[in-house]
Every structure is written in C-alpha cells, then in structure tokens.
Amino acid sequence: MSFLGVDLANVVGEIENTNIECNRNKDDDKKSHIRFRITDGRTSLNLTFFNQIGEEFEKALKANISAQVIVVIVSAKANEHEGSPCLNNYPATRFYFNVAHHSIKALKKSLLDRNKVVMMTDECEEAVVPIFTIAEIKKLGNEYKEKQVQCIITVKKIDQKSNWYDNVCTTCGEEVNIVEGRYKCVICSRSIPFPDKRFRLATICSDSTGVLAVILPDDEIQRIIGKNAFDLENEEEYDQSEVKFPKVLKDFEQKEFSLTLKISERNLDKTSNIYHALKVNGPLEKLGYHSPTNVQTNPAQEISAPLITIPSSSLKRSPPTAKSSSKARSKEKREGDGLEIEDNVPIGKYKIVKTEKVFMIICP
To answer: Disordered: where is this region (predicted)?
Structure first.
C-alpha cells in the first residue's frame, strides 16, 4: 500500500521478546525509540517506533499480562536497514494487542501447528542420534556437517580464567560490547542500558580415547543447577572481590555426563577444536558399587510363647513358687499385708486354655 509516495504495510506477528524498554537520547529527553521483533513462525521482522508512539507501545506492552503477545500493526512505514527490511512508525501508524481478529486466530493456529511439527522433528532426530567416542568424533566426515552426535564423557577441567557468563542483548540475544562506556548491540544497532547475562562454561572433557574442548549451553546449566546467571551473581555468598568463580559451577568437574554435540563445518575442517553442546544429560548414576553380597540381613528371630503376667495384688497371700518349702512358716508373716514379691522371680507355667474354632455357614 502506498500513500503520498510512502510505502505503508499492515502486519501481524508474535512479539519475540516482551522484555523491552524505550531508549532515550541522553542529550534530548524528548527523543526516544523502542526496537522489537515480530515473527510469524517462519521469519522475523525488525520494527522501530520513535518518540510518543514508542512510549505508548512500551506502556501498553507492560500492561499486557498475556504470555503470548500477538500485535497487529496498521500503516507502518516500510524501510530498509543495513540491507534488511524493517518497519518504522508513521503518523497513521496504529497497533493492537491480542484483539479478536481472524488474522490473529489464523496466526495462533499456524504457530501451534508449526510448534507441533518442530517437536515431532526434534523427537525423530533424538531417536537416531548416534553415540561416538571422542576419538571417533574427531574423525567424522562431511556427512555429519550440522548434525548431532552423542558422547559419554567426564568433565576433567573447567576453564576458570575466562568469564563464566556473557552480557547479551535483551532483544536478539547476541553478545554486546562496551563502546564509549555503554553496552551496545551491533545486530540491533542500539545501546543496552542493562544487558541480560548468559552462562558460558568452557570445559575440557575426556573419555578413555581422548580429550575434547566443549562449551556447555546456558539453558542446560540453568536446568541442572536451578539458577540463572543473574541469580548466581547476586547471591549473598558470592563476592566478586573474593570468589572469582562460583563453587556450584566448579562442581561440574569430575562428573560424568552424556553430551549432545552439534558438529559444525569448522569442526570438520579442523579450523576449530571447540565443540558446542546442545544438551547435557546426567550426571549418570553409578550403580556398580551396590553389591548384593554386602546387603546386611537381619537374622530370623525366634518366636517365643506368650507370657502370662499376674498382678501382684493377687499374689500377696500366696508365697512365691521359688520360695515354697515344707517348713512351717510363722503366722505373722503369712498374715502380713505388706509382703513384697522379689523381682526376677520366675512365675510358674500356666496352662493356656485352647479355644474351639466355630465355623458358621451362611445360606443365601
């Protein structure tokens, strides 16, 4: 659509990252802009809203509590930035979040169907991922380019000299650099006031055939330790001035894992000896130390006949069996009410009356 020689476009897409903020010009507070990306499940598009509409977009996005935000943008100005198409706001530009529109319903269904296809594809790939030793991985041919393989390794060492996390862009997820005292993203071409943090754990892994340098992924480290890089950095016990490397990450050493690696072209042509892991399973349980011969069993205990105890009140006027004799006893002792029975005196055996079993037949 064209209006007064300006190309305008109507688009609908899901916002990839809703945690975005307006960037204000440090020299002029009235100037600001907000950058974000939308996707239809197959491709993504960069958008930038400037000044007032950008601030309105930020407020509306923060007020939206939906987990999935699909936006309809009307009359956006088509543009190009660094060779890639993008959209900017125009006086006629309007936006709507999660409205009841047939295009949004169609996009939700398309995204849901695509996610199902991706999940089924991933499951099929997982089922056929081969397992190799480290020596075999180093000898793989071009037929394994961009394919996944598995290996059972032990983390021999973690590189504690390099930083254990990267500062990344909150929009595109790429690593940001400090330029003129501020974090800047080259991909998004914008300053990042407060970048996100992502684990970057460099390890030396080994098995019985050799050693391999592997970078463990951020999402798998979070899943295993139950914390993200922000949580770990801001823990009370973690002091950057004293402890340069968190202990919970050191605990990966000397543990056995099953890694899923993605073989890149640089790995195959020996340009790079660094392998990137996609999944980290384990640590594997060691069950070989549990021997059945070491199981302690309790010896069978002998079942003794039930003992019948008789209250002492009923024995006051009768002498204990162990003390009975044919000698005559004095009348005073026999008539004494305060006679006490000695402890540990065995009581004679008493006959246990057997009860008869009665069977009842109930007729219907």
So the answer is: 308-339
